Amino acid sequence: MNALEALTNATIGFAISWAATYWLLPLWGFEPAASQAFSITAMFFTISFARAWALRVLFRRLEA
């Protein structure tokens, strides 16, 4: 369940992050294509998922 919870959280974050990367980076002079925005977001998604999962496991162990 820890992995599923972390995956659900990261998936929602993925959609929001992709939209922000695609629509907001041009404000700073970066013009990523949709596929580039997806790749950037996928990298941060992986990092976010691993972080969330590791923290959940750590806190579950501390509770025990």
Structure description:
83% of the residues lie in helices and 0% in strands. With 64 residues, it is mostly helical. It has one domain. Helix 1 packs antiparallel against helix 2. It is elongated and about 50 Å long. The mean pLDDT is 88.
Give the secondary structure arrangement, pairings included.
Layout: H1 2-24, H2 34-63
Helix pairs in contact: 1-2
Question: What keywords describe this structure?
Answer:
64 residues, mainly alpha, 2 helices, 83% helix, 0% strand
Produce a short descriptive summary.
By secondary structure, the chain is mostly helical.
**Uncertain stretches of 5 or more adjacent residues:** none
Secondary-structure element pattern, one letter each: HH
Distance between the termini: 16 Å
Put simply, the count of helices is 2
What is the rounded Rg? 15 Å
